[in-house]
Write a structure and sequence with these properties.
280 residues; alpha/beta; Rossmann fold; 10 helices; binds thiamine diphosphate; binds iron/sulfur cluster
């Protein structure tokens, strides 16, 4: 593989063939494309949760904060409010984003926080050896359900659409160029953007055959919310990938602070005291 400026010295410990490689490479390509669009690499900030997916943080030479399980989307919301000029991206696992961190996802979507969440959806808690996750299919066998998962899987994109997400997409780690375009679109979108990435875990949930057969690129987002919800649920015969929903709405930090940037427009001590005196 040719050396990329975003490579780090960390040893990559993912299993050979893991879908996480596709996401890593798609993301690096996306950063190149963003730079061509005038987005400075130094203004792209990343965070991740804990899990196999979380290791991606160590493999990309960008600034950020390695967060904790289920909290990367909360972490990047804080960073965005601190400096709205930054593009902030949270990497998360399906256990991370749709289990432990589901409340952060719902409320980030509800308030249209201007963040991008990339979910490595392998339908299992992989790092902890394959327990069933919120997106595991019924019957999925692992250490927490040796007889098979007895619950139906969650459709996370339908939930996030209902919650208020303004950009919703699904990608597939084995369709790397398509995924890298989705990542660019999601990051350029002003508002809450989520990409649910189908990511086979060759050890705990090897879905390559299934997704190679079923993945079908859709070329246009739905015209309205009902259409988008229909599209994300249309998974029986095929697995649509692409952008399902893309609408504009005022973002949280602008609603909260207008054009004020706390990291650049700091008040002096005297100005702060004056403001406090105005209130008391
Ligand atoms: C607060 C907290 N709860 C639980 C754990 C244990 N834990 C670490 S990784 C993990 C599962 C990760 O699964 P997922 O988010 O789907 O990521 P994957 O490993 O599949 O990429 C869990 C439960 C933890 N580290 N912190
Ligand atoms: S256990 Fe699964 S998700 Fe984790 S690195 Fe290996 S193949 Fe990838």
């Amino acid at each position: 593989m040719t050396k990329n400026v975003l490579d780090t010295n960390a040893e990559i410990t993912w299993c050979p063939g893991c879908g996480n490689f596709g996401i890593l490479n798609a993301f690096k390509k996306a950063v190149d494309k963003l730079e061509n669009k005038g987005v400075n690499r130094d203004s792209i900030i990343i965070s991740s949760g804990i899990g196999c997916h979380g290791k991606i943080f160590d493999y990309i030479k960008l600034s950020g904060l390695y967060s904790i399980h289920g909290r990367s989307m909360a972490t990047v919301q804080g960073i965005k409010i601190g400096n709205p000029n930054l593009k902030v991206i949270a990497f998360a696992g399906d256990g991370d984003a749709y289990g432990e961190g589901i409340a952060h996802m719902i409320f980030a979507a509800k308030r249209n926080a201007d963040i991008t969440v990339i979910v490595h959806n392998n339908g299992a808690y992989a790092l902890t050896t394959g327990q069933f996750s919120p997106t595991s299919k019924k019957g999925f066998k692992g250490p927490s359900r040796p007889e098979g998962n007895i619950e139906d899987p969650l459709n996370p994109l339908s939930l996030l659409l209902e919650a208020g997400a303004t950009f919703v997409a699904r990608g597939y780690s084995a369709k790397m160029d398509h995924l890298s375009d989705l990542i660019v679109e999601a990051i350029m979108h002003e508002g809450f953007s989520v990409i649910d990435v189908l990511q086979p875990s060759v050890v705990f949930n090897n879905t390559y055959k299934l997704y190679n057969e079923k993945a079908e690129i859709i070329h246009k987002p739905a015209k309205n919310l009902d259409g988008a919800i229909k599209l994300v649920k249309d998974t029986k015969q095929r697995m649509p990938i692409g952008v399902f929903y893309d609408v504009r709405k005022l973002v949280f930090h602008k609603e909260l602070m207008g054009d004020w940037n706390p990291s650049q427009n700091k008040m002096s001590r005297n100005e702060r005291l004056k403001k406090i005196n105005e209130f008391v």
